[in-house]
Amino acid sequence: MSTENAPWAGTEDQAFAEFSALEASGEARLFDGALLVAHWLSGASVASLCEAPLEACCAAAAPWVAPRFDAATNAEGLVTALAQSLGYGGDEAAYGALENSRIDQVLTRRRGLPITLAVVYVEVGRRLGLSLTGVNAPGHFMVAMAQDPRVWIDPFGGTVESEEAFRDRLKARGAPAVVLAAPFPSCDPRALVLRMLANIQQQQGEQKAWGLALQASEARRRLAPAQLAVLFDHVQLLQRAGRLQDAEAALVDALPSLDGRAEALALAWLAQLRRGVTRH
After folding, report:
1. Which of 138, 147, 145 is nearest to 161 (CA)?
2. Model pTM score
3. What is the pLDDT of residues 48-78, one digit of tens each?
4. At 25, which helix (H) or strand (E)?
5. N or C: at which end does the chain have fewer Cβ atoms within 10 angstroms?
Protein backbone atom coordinates (compact mmCIF):
# COMPACT_ATOMS: atom_id res chain seq x y z
CA MET A 1 0.00 0.00 0.00
CA SER A 2 1.67 3.19 -1.18
CA THR A 3 2.02 6.25 1.03
CA GLU A 4 4.24 8.17 -1.37
CA ASN A 5 1.64 10.93 -1.67
CA ALA A 6 0.47 10.75 1.92
CA PRO A 7 -1.02 13.82 3.60
CA TRP A 8 0.74 15.91 6.24
CA ALA A 9 3.77 16.37 4.00
CA GLY A 10 3.39 20.06 4.82
CA THR A 11 1.37 22.40 6.96
CA GLU A 12 -0.97 23.34 4.13
CA ASP A 13 -2.21 19.83 3.40
CA GLN A 14 -5.88 20.06 2.52
CA ALA A 15 -7.04 16.88 4.27
CA PHE A 16 -5.46 17.91 7.56
CA ALA A 17 -6.72 21.48 7.16
CA GLU A 18 -10.28 20.24 6.65
CA PHE A 19 -10.01 17.96 9.69
CA SER A 20 -8.65 20.84 11.79
CA ALA A 21 -11.52 23.05 10.63
CA LEU A 22 -14.04 20.42 11.72
CA GLU A 23 -12.30 20.22 15.10
CA ALA A 24 -12.37 24.00 15.49
CA SER A 25 -16.10 24.09 14.74
CA GLY A 26 -16.82 21.25 17.16
CA GLU A 27 -18.22 19.12 14.35
CA ALA A 28 -15.45 16.51 14.05
CA ARG A 29 -16.53 12.90 14.60
CA LEU A 30 -14.49 9.79 15.22
CA PHE A 31 -15.42 8.80 11.68
CA ASP A 32 -13.68 11.94 10.38
CA GLY A 33 -10.52 10.91 12.21
CA ALA A 34 -10.66 7.44 10.69
CA LEU A 35 -11.21 8.96 7.23
CA LEU A 36 -8.13 11.12 7.72
CA VAL A 37 -5.93 8.11 8.53
CA ALA A 38 -7.31 6.21 5.53
CA HIS A 39 -6.58 9.25 3.36
CA TRP A 40 -3.03 9.28 4.70
CA LEU A 41 -2.54 5.59 3.89
CA SER A 42 -4.15 5.64 0.45
CA GLY A 43 -3.15 9.12 -0.75
CA ALA A 44 -6.75 10.08 -1.56
CA SER A 45 -10.11 10.57 0.11
CA VAL A 46 -12.04 7.35 0.74
CA ALA A 47 -15.22 8.99 2.07
CA SER A 48 -17.35 8.06 -0.94
CA LEU A 49 -16.26 4.42 -0.68
CA CYS A 50 -17.67 4.19 2.82
CA GLU A 51 -21.23 5.31 2.15
CA ALA A 52 -22.73 2.16 0.62
CA PRO A 53 -21.45 -0.23 3.32
CA LEU A 54 -22.45 2.24 6.06
CA GLU A 55 -25.95 2.43 4.60
CA ALA A 56 -26.11 -1.36 4.63
CA CYS A 57 -25.03 -1.38 8.28
CA CYS A 58 -27.70 1.16 9.18
CA ALA A 59 -30.37 -0.81 7.33
CA ALA A 60 -29.40 -3.96 9.23
CA ALA A 61 -29.35 -2.21 12.62
CA ALA A 62 -32.47 -0.04 12.24
CA PRO A 63 -34.94 -2.79 13.31
CA TRP A 64 -32.95 -3.48 16.46
CA VAL A 65 -32.19 -0.02 17.91
CA ALA A 66 -33.96 3.25 18.69
CA PRO A 67 -33.31 6.27 20.92
CA ARG A 68 -36.31 5.25 23.08
CA PHE A 69 -34.74 1.88 23.94
CA ASP A 70 -32.44 1.54 26.94
CA ALA A 71 -28.67 1.37 26.60
CA ALA A 72 -28.37 -2.40 27.02
CA THR A 73 -31.05 -3.06 24.40
CA ASN A 74 -29.39 -0.73 21.92
CA ALA A 75 -25.96 -2.23 22.56
CA GLU A 76 -27.32 -5.74 22.03
CA GLY A 77 -29.11 -4.56 18.91
CA LEU A 78 -25.96 -3.12 17.38
CA VAL A 79 -24.04 -6.31 18.12
CA THR A 80 -26.86 -8.42 16.67
CA ALA A 81 -26.88 -6.43 13.44
CA LEU A 82 -23.19 -5.72 12.91
CA ALA A 83 -21.41 -8.70 14.44
CA GLN A 84 -23.96 -11.50 14.14
CA SER A 85 -25.93 -10.60 11.00
CA LEU A 86 -23.26 -8.83 8.90
CA GLY A 87 -20.19 -10.55 10.34
CA TYR A 88 -18.14 -7.54 11.45
CA GLY A 89 -15.36 -8.66 13.78
CA GLY A 90 -11.70 -8.64 14.62
CA ASP A 91 -9.07 -9.68 12.11
CA GLU A 92 -7.18 -12.16 14.23
CA ALA A 93 -5.45 -13.76 11.24
CA ALA A 94 -3.75 -10.56 10.02
CA TYR A 95 -4.04 -8.17 12.94
CA GLY A 96 -1.27 -5.82 11.82
CA ALA A 97 -2.33 -5.56 8.16
CA LEU A 98 -2.60 -1.97 6.98
CA GLU A 99 -6.08 -2.68 5.61
CA ASN A 100 -7.27 -2.94 9.20
CA SER A 101 -6.36 0.72 9.72
CA ARG A 102 -8.29 1.88 6.64
CA ILE A 103 -11.93 2.48 7.48
CA ASP A 104 -13.01 1.93 3.85
CA GLN A 105 -11.33 -1.47 3.80
CA VAL A 106 -12.75 -2.38 7.21
CA LEU A 107 -16.26 -1.59 5.98
CA THR A 108 -15.73 -3.63 2.81
CA ARG A 109 -13.92 -6.61 4.36
CA ARG A 110 -15.92 -6.54 7.63
CA ARG A 111 -12.68 -7.15 9.49
CA GLY A 112 -10.55 -4.71 11.42
CA LEU A 113 -8.85 -3.62 14.61
CA PRO A 114 -10.75 -2.78 17.79
CA ILE A 115 -10.35 0.93 17.06
CA THR A 116 -11.56 0.88 13.44
CA LEU A 117 -14.44 -1.45 14.25
CA ALA A 118 -15.35 0.90 17.10
CA VAL A 119 -15.62 3.73 14.60
CA VAL A 120 -18.11 1.67 12.59
CA TYR A 121 -20.29 1.10 15.68
CA VAL A 122 -20.15 4.75 16.74
CA GLU A 123 -20.97 6.04 13.26
CA VAL A 124 -23.81 3.58 12.65
CA GLY A 125 -25.25 4.46 16.05
CA ARG A 126 -24.99 8.17 15.32
CA ARG A 127 -26.82 7.79 12.02
CA LEU A 128 -29.63 5.98 13.83
CA GLY A 129 -29.98 8.61 16.54
CA LEU A 130 -27.84 6.98 19.22
CA SER A 131 -24.88 8.49 21.04
CA LEU A 132 -21.85 6.24 21.57
CA THR A 133 -18.33 7.16 22.65
CA GLY A 134 -14.97 5.59 22.01
CA VAL A 135 -13.15 4.46 25.15
CA ASN A 136 -9.38 4.88 25.02
CA ALA A 137 -8.73 1.84 27.20
CA PRO A 138 -5.22 0.36 27.42
CA GLY A 139 -4.51 -2.37 24.91
CA HIS A 140 -8.07 -2.66 23.60
CA PHE A 141 -10.31 0.10 22.25
CA MET A 142 -13.93 -0.14 23.40
CA VAL A 143 -17.26 1.63 22.88
CA ALA A 144 -19.56 2.97 25.60
CA MET A 145 -23.26 3.83 25.35
CA ALA A 146 -23.81 7.48 26.25
CA GLN A 147 -27.26 6.56 27.63
CA ASP A 148 -25.49 4.50 30.29
CA PRO A 149 -21.66 4.71 30.17
CA ARG A 150 -21.44 1.49 32.19
CA VAL A 151 -22.67 -0.47 29.16
CA TRP A 152 -19.80 -1.21 26.81
CA ILE A 153 -19.37 -2.95 23.48
CA ASP A 154 -16.28 -4.89 22.42
CA PRO A 155 -16.41 -4.43 18.61
CA PHE A 156 -13.49 -6.80 18.05
CA GLY A 157 -15.18 -9.71 19.79
CA GLY A 158 -18.71 -8.63 18.94
CA THR A 159 -19.97 -8.71 22.53
CA VAL A 160 -21.64 -6.46 25.09
CA GLU A 161 -20.02 -6.20 28.50
CA SER A 162 -19.85 -3.86 31.45
CA GLU A 163 -16.91 -1.64 32.29
CA GLU A 164 -16.43 -3.73 35.42
CA ALA A 165 -16.21 -6.94 33.38
CA PHE A 166 -13.68 -5.32 31.05
CA ARG A 167 -11.51 -4.28 34.00
CA ASP A 168 -11.72 -7.82 35.34
CA ARG A 169 -10.55 -9.04 31.93
CA LEU A 170 -7.56 -6.69 32.07
CA LYS A 171 -6.77 -7.87 35.61
CA ALA A 172 -6.81 -11.49 34.47
CA ARG A 173 -4.29 -10.58 31.79
CA GLY A 174 -1.93 -9.13 34.38
CA ALA A 175 -2.62 -5.41 34.07
CA PRO A 176 -0.96 -3.51 36.96
CA ALA A 177 -3.10 -2.06 39.74
CA VAL A 178 -2.31 1.52 38.73
CA VAL A 179 -3.85 0.88 35.30
CA LEU A 180 -6.90 -0.86 36.73
CA ALA A 181 -7.54 1.98 39.18
CA ALA A 182 -7.33 4.76 36.60
CA PRO A 183 -10.34 6.07 34.68
CA PHE A 184 -10.37 5.23 30.99
CA PRO A 185 -10.84 8.46 29.04
CA SER A 186 -13.32 8.91 26.23
CA CYS A 187 -11.65 9.40 22.87
CA ASP A 188 -11.98 12.56 20.80
CA PRO A 189 -11.23 12.56 17.05
CA ARG A 190 -7.63 13.78 17.37
CA ALA A 191 -6.86 11.23 20.07
CA LEU A 192 -8.28 8.56 17.76
CA VAL A 193 -5.98 9.64 14.92
CA LEU A 194 -3.00 9.65 17.28
CA ARG A 195 -3.79 6.15 18.55
CA MET A 196 -4.32 4.79 15.02
CA LEU A 197 -1.01 6.28 13.89
CA ALA A 198 0.71 4.85 16.97
CA ASN A 199 -0.66 1.42 16.04
CA ILE A 200 0.73 1.77 12.52
CA GLN A 201 4.06 3.01 13.86
CA GLN A 202 4.37 0.06 16.23
CA GLN A 203 3.25 -2.57 13.71
CA GLN A 204 5.51 -1.27 10.94
CA GLY A 205 8.42 -0.86 13.34
CA GLU A 206 8.06 -4.48 14.43
CA GLN A 207 8.35 -5.46 10.76
CA LYS A 208 11.33 -3.10 10.34
CA ALA A 209 9.39 -1.21 7.68
CA TRP A 210 11.13 1.94 8.84
CA GLY A 211 9.87 4.26 6.10
CA LEU A 212 6.18 3.96 6.92
CA ALA A 213 6.83 3.67 10.65
CA LEU A 214 8.72 6.98 10.58
CA GLN A 215 6.04 8.64 8.46
CA ALA A 216 3.46 7.64 11.07
CA SER A 217 5.70 8.89 13.86
CA GLU A 218 6.28 12.24 12.17
CA ALA A 219 2.55 12.62 11.57
CA ARG A 220 1.96 12.04 15.29
CA ARG A 221 4.51 14.74 16.08
CA ARG A 222 2.71 17.23 13.85
CA LEU A 223 -0.58 16.42 15.54
CA ALA A 224 0.78 16.49 19.10
CA PRO A 225 3.98 18.57 19.13
CA ALA A 226 3.78 19.16 22.88
CA GLN A 227 3.41 15.52 23.94
CA LEU A 228 6.70 14.31 25.39
CA ALA A 229 5.81 10.63 24.89
CA VAL A 230 5.33 11.25 21.17
CA LEU A 231 8.74 12.93 20.90
CA PHE A 232 10.52 10.15 22.79
CA ASP A 233 8.74 7.47 20.74
CA HIS A 234 10.02 9.21 17.62
CA VAL A 235 13.60 9.42 18.87
CA GLN A 236 13.59 5.77 19.89
CA LEU A 237 12.22 4.77 16.49
CA LEU A 238 14.98 6.74 14.75
CA GLN A 239 17.54 4.87 16.84
CA ARG A 240 16.04 1.50 15.98
CA ALA A 241 16.12 2.46 12.31
CA GLY A 242 19.84 3.27 12.61
CA ARG A 243 19.33 7.00 12.04
CA LEU A 244 21.31 8.15 15.04
CA GLN A 245 22.13 11.61 13.70
CA ASP A 246 18.46 12.25 13.08
CA ALA A 247 17.65 11.04 16.60
CA GLU A 248 20.22 13.45 18.02
CA ALA A 249 18.85 16.30 15.91
CA ALA A 250 15.29 15.63 17.07
CA LEU A 251 16.35 15.92 20.71
CA VAL A 252 18.40 19.05 20.08
CA ASP A 253 15.47 20.69 18.29
CA ALA A 254 13.13 19.85 21.15
CA LEU A 255 15.36 21.03 24.01
CA PRO A 256 14.27 24.71 23.97
CA SER A 257 10.69 23.64 24.67
CA LEU A 258 11.58 21.28 27.54
CA ASP A 259 12.21 21.97 31.21
CA GLY A 260 12.53 20.13 34.49
CA ARG A 261 12.53 16.34 34.36
CA ALA A 262 11.76 16.29 30.62
CA GLU A 263 14.82 18.42 29.88
CA ALA A 264 16.99 16.24 32.13
CA LEU A 265 15.81 13.07 30.36
CA ALA A 266 16.45 14.57 26.94
CA LEU A 267 19.95 15.75 27.92
CA ALA A 268 20.85 12.33 29.35
CA TRP A 269 19.60 10.64 26.20
CA LEU A 270 21.51 13.09 24.04
CA ALA A 271 24.70 12.35 25.97
CA GLN A 272 24.20 8.63 25.39
CA LEU A 273 23.71 9.18 21.67
CA ARG A 274 26.89 11.19 21.45
CA ARG A 275 28.76 8.42 23.22
CA GLY A 276 27.33 5.91 20.76
CA VAL A 277 25.01 4.29 23.30
CA THR A 278 21.52 3.42 22.02
CA ARG A 279 18.30 2.88 23.95
CA HIS A 280 15.67 0.30 23.01
Report:
1. 145
2. 0.91
3. 999 999 999 999 999 999 999 999 999 999 9
4. helix 14-25
5. C
